[in-house]
Fold each of these.
Amino acid sequence: MQVIEKIKKLKEEKNAVILAHYYVSDEVQAIADYVGDSFYLSKVAVNLTAKVIVFCGVSFMGESAKLLNPDKMVLMPDTEADCAMAHMADPVYITQIKQEYEDLQVVCYINSTAQLKALSDVCVTSANAVDIVRELPGSHILFIPDENLGRYVAKQVPEKQFIFNPGCCPIHAQMKAEEVEKLKKQHPRALVLTHPECREDILSLSDYIGSTSGIIRYAAASDEKEFIICTEAGVAYELGRQDPGKTFYFPETLPVCVDMKKITLEKIADVLENENGQVYVDAGTAAAACRPLRAMLELAEQAANKKEVR
Ligand code: 13P
Ligand code: SF4
């Protein structure tokens, strides 16, 4: 049996649903029930009726889905697919800083381990970080683990005082401004659309800064025909699918997240068949880590409602 047929059959038998991030390979995006950025996928994860969730992404994503759905079976097609940045903050340092500032809010990018989430007040994604930080009480923010996203948010929310943590996404942080400048010279009409995990020198060259879904929506809504895309190359699949008449250029050193590409159709079929790759979070960590995730969903909704009223 063809692997795609096998996945379809197993999905039905097991009452399973497949979620995938835009950075996984094209063929995996093509068979998923829901494809999106981290914020979209976490919203989808709270409203599912299926019994089994197969999460095509890296471990913090499967872990977040499990935290939001403790009674469901969450399967990771490759348990080795991990996000380097998710581990880039020190619990001891967080505990120390908490003691120094009475009004401190620990803001945790969702790209983090459950252990780091458990020490935090609220989670954010690149799609909602600015809106959520604006809503928080107190004036001091410890932003973990991504320094680049933290600095970007700090610029949009100047009324708060930020403490940054030296973590970053190796894929986004290694993009080179010279390569983007070269592309701008070669394609002077092209707009530069950038993810806020990139360094400041790339952000300063950009026409739009936003999450993965934000970049895709911006390109779709624009009348322009050419774009320079500064994020992981997996978005090319959705960009090309929605706008075949537009052209998308990526930096010459193609930004590829090797961990996201570990997810294959064969591994999806295997976890569905054998129910291996199950995500477990110990009960103590789960209770503490779920709180900031739920706080994110609530605050994001509040912020969206406020925008609608305005
Ligand atoms: P978003 O899904 O929030 O755009 O984040 C990108 C990312 O690096 C996910 O790993
Ligand atoms: Fe982590 Fe970066 Fe890969 Fe996203 S692209 S999973 S932030 S290493």
Amino acid sequence: MMAKEKRGMRRGLTAYGDEDFSLFLRTAFIKAMGYSDDALDRPIVGITNTFSGFNACHRNVPELIEAVKRGVMLAGGLPVEFPTITLHESFAHPTSMFLRNLMSMDTEEMIRAQPVDSTVLIGGCDKTVPALLMGAASADVPAIMLVTGPMITGDHKGERLGACTDCRRFWARFRAGEIDQPEMKEIEAKLAPSAGTCMVMGTASTMACVTEAMGMMLPGGACIPAVMAERLRNAEATGARAVAIAKEKLTPSRIMTADAFENGLRMLLAIGGSTNAIVHMAAMAGRLGIELDLEGFDRMGRDTPVLVDLKPTGQHYMEDLDKAGGVTTILRELMPQLKLKALTITGKTLGQNIKAAPAGWKQEVVRPFNNPIFKGGSIAVLRGNLAPDGAIVKQAAASPKLMQHEGRAVVFDSLPDMAARIDSPDLDVTPNDILVLRNAGPIGAPGMPEAGYIPIPKKLAQKGLKDMLRMSDARMSGTAFGAIVLHITPESAVGGPLALVQNGDRIRLDVKNRKLELLVSDEELAVRRKKWKAPKPRKGDERGYRKLFMDTVQQADKGCDFEFLTAPLTKRTPSAKR
Ligand code: FES
């Protein structure tokens, strides 16, 4: 009765000890959905439904699903949507990062559990794209990414507004007393004016561009705004291609290779992208047994210019980048530095895709390679006795004069401590000091919140101070701007040197030489280490997903993935010495 090939309805049968019976039962139940035998004999394309009433970035998912289904059926497949966890940045307590691995596990197991010959992964908001790709990579069933697309910009008194760079900018002005409450209420209604993801080069836009450069998305798919008709045509084409990759057995492991990650890292640097992408890419790579080499990434950064003039580092927004030709325009400039032979979801190489794209035109969003916005090292990797396993700083989004700086530490022991004291008139702080936040890492917070964008203390903000050196074991939103050192590893909660910093200690940041040093003697640090006590477990740490997280989450340099989800490491990327 059963064909030998395990495709379509025959994949991953429920275990009853009799496969023919399992298939009979499955077919009987799916027929209750009204499908014919002809439909059920087609390649089955799963579609992840990541819609939620809490996720405005995914507001257009239902119509994207309709368009994907159309594409699947036009290509002779049977589309079947299924739900997975969805994550929106502002609706994920304690942080969306805390839940990213849960979403990846959900995606992996549902792809494996259900009879899908390929899957269209619909994501958009920051953590959803890496979570879907991590899950799909581990399941290793053919998969193709479709993003919801960026929002279009808002407008306030003749000024273009974008989430969330301008959310932070206006909040800082509100804190400094430059804007009153009624005006903030007006702005609140204009910052996120449509469906879609944040329209600056935050994490969502970064991950979309990186995914396209890595070849897991159709060319041109990253930048089309969520509300455009072209977004639906892109979804339809994605559905059609999903049928083809099912037949071609084009699995994620064939596309997400070390070379593809190198292309993704190039893109991250050239767009001046979000620092969060490093964590996500390390996690994605780890699922495929590839180690993301931070030193190699730093070397790569030194010769990769920032070409894209987009907020928060530049002027434009994602809809402008789309009009300028999107990711292809960037790839064309980067061609001499790319691994052009890397296979992509089209079944062709990255180089072939670039050549097949329409010719470029005069535009002002993507600079030519030899006339960049920022010459190189947009994201620098730091080491030193304060960060033995690394820390990062996004130079391209910081005040240049603070990139070489020595100052006095003003320490906040936790997020609640910072919230309680940062605006106190009694806080002993000057513009030359360094704000240090700890216990805000993967385990310390938990979930490594985007708290690295430590606010300028009110008493300094009111005097007009716009930037000062800040550092922590936390992350930062890709939409933020400032002289901010992030991802200090190991984090404070596991006894990293950050735990030993005291008020008044001197710290030296030397980005030119990639150094982050706590200027305290080894002897003194040894004395402090003896006295250090790990933070006490919190209520809730002892059970459920949180216990799994606390027990198995890795540090930022390993992508904050759970140890047991990674594959044995066999490769490193970027591979070559530069
Ligand atoms: Fe979803 Fe910014 S909140 S992309």
Amino acid sequence: MAPHDDQPEVEDEAMVSDTHKRPISTIVIFIAMHTEALPLVNRFQLKEDHDSLFPEGVPWVRYHGIYKDLHINIVQPGKDSALGVDGVGTVSASLVIYATIHALKPDLIINAGTAGGFKVKGAAIGDVFLASEVAFHDRRIPIPVFDLYGVGLRQAFSTPNIVKELNLKIGRLSTGDSLDMSPHDEASIIANDATLKDMEGAAVAYVAELLKVPAMFLKAVTDIVDGDKPTAEEFLQNLSDVTAALDETVAKAIDFINGKCLSEL
Ligand code: FMC
């Protein structure tokens, strides 16, 4: 490589280490479902943004406010315009995160939400995990290298001090666009060595990496994937209680993050 080609890389590195050394100021919390977000919106007294950052007519929602030294933003896909249900899944997550990063240039993204957990990997209902890595389980492309692209394994931003302070369980998160689990998905989830299964995490990680924003993943277990209860039933039954556990953990994480820089997390 010609010497002048090296220059931007050096500057990039200097910029990255700079951001890692100044206190975190703007946080974006992406939460797919309204029920999951409500306790945090109330806790931090966030206000809905009526002068939207987003394109006119999209259902995407942003709640924002100031808490201690932090600008906190909770963003959501909102309700599907045709069907009126929360826009869960990878497609809307990617779009909302893209638009949000573009507009707010946050220092950190937290994807908070519910997930299925595998009891063979130590998950129980109500546990809140921090994901160490995320990957997809429904993008099977059996062609060399495309196979790895499909899996899209990515590291979460490393936050060893948050893990210690909050005493969090750690596991890998596997993402796909279905709540149920087909035998193909199951094989991929096992190959991903996942403890958790959700519908947004790996998509958030993809966009965050693309736009160079650190991302962490806090996931609360609503249902046991390798248990004997039907997933949808167990999910709906536990959603409200588990959301309370998620709220507690996210709030503690925010308190820990306040006043710190990325390298102290
Ligand atoms: N499988 C996939 N997703 C989820 C899950 C499971 N067993 N339990 N909870 C979830 C999460 C997804 O990320 C969605 O946002 C929502 O809850 C279910 O539609």
